[in-house]
Amino acid sequence: MGEPTAEGRFGEFGGRFVPEALVPACIELEAAFRSAWADPGFRSELDRLLIHYAGRPSPLTECSRLSDELGVRILLKREDLNHTGSHKINNVLGQALLAQRMGKGRLVAETGAGQHGVATATAAAKFGMDCVIYMGAVDMRRQELNVFRMRLLGAEVRSAETGSRTLKDAVNEAMRDWVATVESTHYCLGSAMGPHPYPWMVRELQRVIGDEAREQCRDLLGGGVPDVVVACVGGGSNAAGLFTGFADSTAELVGVEPAGGAAIGHGVPGVVHGMKSYLLQDEFGQVMEAESISAGLDYPGVGPEHAHLALTGRATYVAVSDDEVVDAFQLLSRTEGIIPALEPAHALAWVSKERSMLRGRTVLINLSGRGDKDVAQMMELLS
Amino acid sequence: MRPAGGLEAALRRRLESGGKCLVPYLTGGLREDWLEVVRAIAGAGADAVEVGIPFSDPVMDGPTIQQASDRALRSGATPVSVLDELATVDAGVPLAVMTYYNIVYRFGHERFARTLVSSGVAAAILPDLPLEESGAWTAAADLAGVETVMLAAPTAPDERLPLVCHRARGFVYGVGLLGVTGERSELARSATVIARRLKSVTDKPVLVGVGISSPAQAAEVCADADGVVVGSAIVRRLLEGADPEQIAATVAEFREALDVLAAGVGQG
After folding, report:
1. What residue segments make up the domains of chain A, in order of their start?
2. What is the dotted CATH code of the domain comprising A55-86+207-382?
3. Is B66 in contact with A162 (Cβ distance < 8 A)?
4. Confidence at residue B267, expressed as pLDDT on a 0 to 100 scale
5. Which of A26, A87, A186, A306 is an active site residue?
6. Does the annotation mark A188 as catalytic?
7. Residues with Cβ < 8 Å from B47, sequence gap 6 or more?
8. Fewer Cβ close by (within 10 Å): the C or N end of chain A?
9. What does the alpha-carbon distance between residue A363 and residue B12 come to, in Å, rounded to a whole number?
């Protein structure tokens, strides 16, 4: 998984479809990230934060009871153990540091389940920056604990009241904010999506997941790689980060979408939120609402690099139903003592569903977040 | 029939006669009587009418036009229905459509351009299609004879403006402020600044839009600009239930303010 073209394309996907007002900001951001990423000073400052603040490296956990139950050797990359409870912190610390370097004192971000919002609010608190988080009104109800967390961390949470009032509408509101405040504000986008350079930059900031996992697998597997590497895909940042570590290996790469938001599975190419990618849309190009049990995957599009990986066949994209996700959520809790977030429960659900095909093989799953935020929702559903 | 030569020709005629250009906007399919509103706007002194094809995710639009887009979509407006209905109107002034790029992309570039022509639409404005991404569309538009208006934002560095102006057809759309569409209580200083910057690099008509809310603000920015695009101020009245005559009266107020300015400039 290399660099996109100068136009920000991964094959035919990607690009920079933004209002004129944002073009200079995207160009400036690309240059700033390129220079920071090549700067050992920036890299060591970020590494220090990742180690001493976020708690990296995250462990690789071998799941003996789950492996016995499924007949598949399961390894989990434990992004759930990071500070703030998910992989989102990796990206956010990098972008906040970059914003500071660019002299921007205000962060705006969108959030679906609230994990990226909490991570952004956390970084803003840590760096002493102003922070506004946009969240769909529907999601604010589904994830009220995270709304409280963000406010506790000093962020202002604004509700997106138009459209489906979920993640896609929160992105719209964040972009509208950025159009008006671009000179002082950095848009801290939470996934490997949006206009160039975001899909590439966010993947690079998340590649720490894959790079660590590759090394941990090498140690555990006597120099080898897993047979299959699996991650859930909404916008696709945790999957992009994990896949980057294994793209040059023999491992099969599998991205798992929610059945109700399978942009690669059911979408056709389109342009929204600054990028060309697969998109759930009607015959006229109106963007459709995704529907998933997990607010974090409730997104009708997908990052452009995933669209490219799907088209070239390097990665395979599959979908699981909400019911399968709920089963997987309970399965991991019961067998390993790990309550997963509903998002990575999608990856688990696929492995569980395909256990006979995967029998005897070694599968690495990115456990991208922990389930605390979902416990209330599951309690209601299961009791 | 509409005047030959499309949008830029019509605007130039106004400018050559010493006037300032007025391009009001409304959301297509917003109400049952929207075509009557188009005619009313045209008859009240507009030089062209900008018609929005509603899109589900209008990131350049503020609350007023978002609400109008939502309402139009909920009442079943589609790109096809809006263009089909427009084809039945003889407004007497050029028509431009404003929509977001995914509508065009999904339609297909050539097919969209041909459909605009057959619907009697002279020009297209695509606010999320910046210069660097515009090639595939403008090639099809140029071939079909559709004028593509380009937007120029206050954040553009000096060296970018001539490139935007060079690619623009119809007029150059100066974005009056950093932000999305919507009414503002005062004219942003950036509106005058972008008008001056654009006038210094192009001979094409320079119209300023976004945040032009009152006839007084229109006149103020037209001290430097060749004209204005007025959207939310019209659409808000439509959402409030104003009838076509009342909308015509609003447009006439803008027309009068621009004519007074032009007469003053002429005498001065």
Report:
1. 9-49+88-198, 55-86+207-382
2. 3.40.50.1100
3. yes
4. 59
5. A87
6. no
7. B10, B11, B14, B21, B22, B23, B93, B94, B227
8. C
9. 67
Element (H, E) at B264: helix B244-267
Query: Angle CA(A71)–CA(A72)–CA(A73) in degrees, nearest 5?
Result: 125
Give pLDDT, residue A113: 84
Q: Where are the alpha helices (DSSP H) in chain A?
A: 23-37, 40-52, 64-70, 88-101, 115-127, 137-142, 144-152, 167-181, 198-220, 237-244, 263-266, 304-312, 322-336, 342-353, 355-358, 375-382
Show the tokens assigned to A317: 């994209």
Fold: same for A9-49+88-198 and A55-86+207-382: yes
- Residue B206 neighbours by CB distance under 10 Å: 28
Q: Say yes or no: A380 contacts chain B, CB-CB below 8 A.
A: no
- Rounded to whole angstroms, the Cα distance separating A331 from A354 reads 15
Instruction: Give first-to-last CA distance, chain B, whole Å.
Output: 36
Burial label for A2, CB within 10 Å (0-12, 13-18, 19+), is exposed
Residue A301 contacts B where some CB pair is shorter than 8 Å: no
Provide the β-strand partners of residue A283. Answer: none
CATH number, span A9-49+88-198: 3.40.50.1100
> Would the CB atoms of A272 and B178 count as touching at under 8 Å?
no
- Model ipTM value: 0.94
Whole-number pLDDT of residue B22: 98
B41 neighbors B251 (Cβ within 8 angstroms): yes
User: pLDDT tens for residues B126-181?
Assistant: 999 999 999 999 999 999 999 999 999 999 999 999 999 999 999 999 999 999 99
Q: Which DSSP state fits B92?
A: S
Determine the residue type at A196: H
Q: Does residue B266 register a pLDDT over 70? A: no
Cα–Cα distance for residue pair B250/A316, rounded to 1 Å: 57
* Domains annotated on chain B, with CATH: 18-267 (3.20.20.70)
Per the residue annotation, which of A26, A63, A188, A232 is the catalytic one?
A: A63
Contact B57 A172 (CB under 8 A): yes
What's the token pair of residue A63? 């799941």
Dist CA A182 CA A255 (whole Å): 33
Q: How many CB atoms lie within 10 A of CB A122?
A: 25
Helix, strand, coil percent content, chain B, rounded in steps of 5: 50, 15, 40
The whole-angstrom separation of Cα B45 and Cα B52 is 19
Please state the separation of Cα A283 from the chain's center in Å: 28
Any chain B CB within 8 A of the CB of A271? yes
A131 catalytically annotated:
no
Given its phi and psi angles, is residue A15 left (phi above 0), alpha (psi -120 to 50 degrees) or beta? left
**CB-CB contact of A81 with A59 (8 Å):** yes
Chain B residues with CB under 8 Å of a chain A CB are 55-60, 62, 66-67, 70, 73, 78-80, 101-107, 127-133, 150-157, 160, 164, 175, 177-180
Put simply, the answer to whether B128 touches A17 (Cβ < 8 Å) is yes
**Chain centroid offset of residue B123 CA:** 9
